[in-house]
Amino acid sequence: MKNFKKIKTQIQKQLADHGKAVLNGFIIVEGTGNTNLMATKPGEKTVFCNTVEEILNSILKMAEACEECGERLLDENVVWLELSQTDGKHYKTIPHGHTSQGSFAFGKGCATKVLAGQAGE
Question: Residue 72 phi/psi, 5° resolution?
Answer without folding.
Answer: -70, 135
